[in-house]
């Protein structure tokens, strides 16, 4: 057991820290849920890509550095520490890319990964549907063979597509065998958002911004080479992505340790009732525990083991930790908490609103608790 | 012992609910949030006129001052309904804070004039300059070099005719003023909830507007803080009730995995826990109103307990409400967010649950559950 | 609205306080889960009965004072304030008696209530069975007509009978129609524990004492006049008792306000980390909120309304309040909490163990949450 | 970075589990609780002999002192297994507290003699006189008029050959002694858990038994407190794991309403929450062991964090375990209570979760997450 990073890893950390110090915009970018903010964030992705920082763990041929999971964790720690911009390309690079690297053809990887890494093409996900939220197997959007037999025709509706209002591409699953039940007969498609028949309706969020969108598919033609994985195998292909979403790659611990550190600073600056001391201490511990757990899991992965069903605990823990950190900050702010001013209060309020989505998306925590009970504790289904 | 509302009190509450169902429907809230500045002001004016016609703002003003001469126990149901409807206008500030504060200062001339405007001109009041902390009541009002006072987070200032504002300095202690709107400069503050109108108000210190100073002002401000805790507890009880009702309805309608999500225990038990919290916050809130009405020596304790329990109950209802609604609840199109935002703001305004828990403990430790005035020396 | 007690009620309070001050044993009685302690508690019941304090709300003809619900609440406040002994007769006077007053014949009331009030006959309840805990409708103990047709023959097994080791009588429900399903075909019986065929097996509790018992019924003959209510109507008769158990009469608020007051004293004496201040304050508020809620409900009852389904909230609230009060006390005691010494530590530890049973018995809190969700919020069953 | 146990460490843990499955089965715990004083002592002696044969007590004693020369990362899995089995004997006290404390004081003669008894005579140690509070480490040892010291809540004194005892007075500071059993008078204390042997020990202050005093003793005691926090966290992780396993098994077997109660979401979600808490307490506990093994400057922080998280995880597992077992779990016949009682005692011993949360915060505020020694000045 060794919980120190190697000299090489520390050198990489220093390099990342230096680059970020030199390049992270001094002023926060405008919200990525606005058109202007979206483009500003895309430009930032390009800046990172040019110096090979956008996808450090990817193979070098697609724009990465072919680094291991610990280097990725180190990079993330530095990225959050530097308070660098949100990743507008995160759906692509953290959700789609791992799936594509596993299931994609060489041609698909060569075609899609480099522009994803550079921010030239931003991806949104077409997972949920109005009647298939927690119950993803209830998907009704469908794909049928086109007349020529060389492609597919998509119809239906997807919703809760983050970045859907501005993205160039969408990935998602569609029912290719209407006779098959629930998890069967689904296929994973890659769809250009400028395809004829695609209509996007932005959904205003609780805070008035438009991060989500509904996407309507009306006889959208999609060529054969935009199927990812086997036809009819969409569920298992999608679950690989969902696995990475809940597992190691979407929610890097650095995000929580950074927020917990800021909470500590806020507590030092503002003081606060004694009750807050416990919340602040617990936030610090939970963020650090999540970091340690990630090192633990990554050590397994580095030894060639699979992530394991323990990952279903992660989603519950990081999402509740996020809510707790931001809720504690609002409690410290007291009557100032409702102010949408620039700087501390508004930022924590935004973060709180965002955190509240955590226990809902990527499989509600209710579903996750079922998974933990059934798969880790062996309790019966139903 | 008869811990119950009278038929008249029930009827008053029902009357207010009926009016607000129309005047303050969710569609009305939506229109209010989307309106431009002039449109917003007009909607506010019109709705206030309806409330004034009901007599709500002057409910606890004595008949001698041309009010309805009712009490805090009559008012608490009205405030609960205002919370339930997410009413944007400053009914708490006008009817539950300004009106009784001014009435208690009669026959003072400035107080009488302000109260007359409330009763006869049907104007609304802004209130600000008082914060509740674990160390007691403090004023966030700052004095700038030119003698102008700056009070942040004043509620209702954009539409008010008069602002009830407090300030305090270490030398001369508390002052309480009734400042005409035309003496104030109002800077609206971007804030979480469109149904809570916050501004920073700049105002001149003027002996003409002075209502009370020194010990009298401190007593008035302390009582106002208790009134605010008790009254905002009533609003929060109403908000919790509404969010629970909306969420239960949604849980019956929304189907996943082939059945209504409300038939899953995970959903049932979250809602049940929120319902239980509300069930026990309610009597605490009604007791605080009774303690106000009858000037109990335990008033500060009772008001703090009500605010602590109602804040926690409403926060829980909001949390469960959003979780059960899922992504839908996270959209502006869903009605829920009006109530969520109002709850998140109000549960922390006038002292949050943790603050009031400490105040309760301080009162209990003092043995007599005494009044809040003396609390600043009970720091612990 | 008036939250003060009348002059008469205050006079009654003074009378009760004076009597209790003069009569409550200076030293705590031995545990009522021992034979000696049981008899000591029975003697205390007799002492109370002699001065008409054992059942103040009952009709005078059965040993009560015919007082209203508020007077009962006042008496309870004084009783707990005086730290008077546990009520060994509580199953009878709080659970069976309200049912008997509603469903019993005049002959039954005259026969059973006076010795119940005096402690001469102590009752235990035969509710649960090994396979019918939360699911009471799954009861399998059965009663069949006897050969003579003038009575019944009981067979089966009951469990978790508090005081069952020493009680003279048992009340419970038995299946009289083996064809009927679940809630139907059950009948409410009164059974003398010295009837031939009754065997009692004490169950050692977690703390080594023997408060519970299993009761085995092997062809136990019971005469017709020991049926309470209609034959076959046992479920609704029993639910009336369960209603009072969860409703107003079993858990008087005084129990929690008294414990919360002691917790405050402990906090004042010992100090404690700031985190405890919140727990202590919350315990005080919850106890007082439960008291207020009881006054609220009692005011409805005094106006002739029913208790209402809101009572299903009570069980959840008092049981969790009890656990919280005692848990907070153990936290204040810190490393002394595990000591079983006489006086403060041991008393709180006993109380904690006892409180943990609260969320389990009288319908687990899981069942209660279902009831709240279904009956108060209208959510669908199943 | 390689946050994993070696194959040897896994094998060691598995070996201990196999032995304890037999030697410390629930039947053995039951027999132990029912035995008379002599029988109890014999059972304890026999089980300790088996543990000694495994080398467990001397695991971290250096090879130069005839120990196994392993480290805290090797020991943590063994302690977790001891928790899992609810082992009544003082393995934490002997192997994780006394052994490394004595080894660090070598070549001191008294320490060497005590360590030799541990390694060669296979005796068990009692430990007492150190309490962890939010203000730092304090001693509950009292001095009576005749110079006798009285230390309450000493663990393992009835069967120990030597007691490691600390005392402190305001003038001369800390002292640490290794007191032979025959110099002690042991008054067993009735306590919650039969698998935690508590006594009040009366002992003479004697320079022959002195291991360290002043600054050296304070450092030794502070490190002992960190070791105790880290080690008891490991026991609690094992206890939580066992209670969850027992409860999941019961939830699969027990049927109500026509199905296994473990198929109800209400049961599933309670167990899942406890499982999640355990999942994240574990790496924190292993990290604390590594910090001990490598003398990290963050040791005090890491040990406190481990104890806080493990205490909360075990308390939650106990609470859920009892609730899911229902009335059955409330009986002495059910196996659960051994683990419940041990958890309730141990989660509060050596500083409870709230205490360690404050200590974590104090460490973080000091910036360096420094050692606990300096904590007494960081009161807040």
Task: Describe the 3D structure.
The complex is a heterotetramer, with 2 copies of chain A (382 residues) and 2 copies of chain B (380 residues). Chain A has 382 residues and is an alpha+beta fold. Chain A folds into 3 domains: 82 residues, Butyryl-Coa Dehydrogenase, subunit A, domain 1, CATH 1.10.540.10; 110 residues, Butyryl-CoA Dehydrogenase, subunit A, domain 2 (Beta Barrel); 126 residues, Butyryl-CoA Dehydrogenase, subunit A, domain 3 (Up-down Bundle), CATH 1.20.140. Chain A is built from 11 helices and 8 strands. In chain A, the strands form 2 sheets. A 4-stranded mixed beta sheet of chain A has the order 1-4-5-8. The longest helix of chain A has 29 residues. The model of chain A has no long low-confidence stretch (mean pLDDT 91). By secondary structure, chain B is α+β, with helices and mostly antiparallel strands. Chain B has a domain of 151 residues: Butyryl-CoA Dehydrogenase, subunit A, domain 3, CATH 1.20.140. Chain B contains 11 helices and 12 strands. In chain B, a hairpin with a 3-residue loop joins strand 6 and strand 7. The C terminus of chain B is likely disordered. Chains in contact: A-B, A-C, A-D, B-C, B-D, C-D. At the A-D interface, helix 8, helix 9 and helix 11 of A face helix 7, strand 12, helix 8, helix 9 and helix 11 of D.
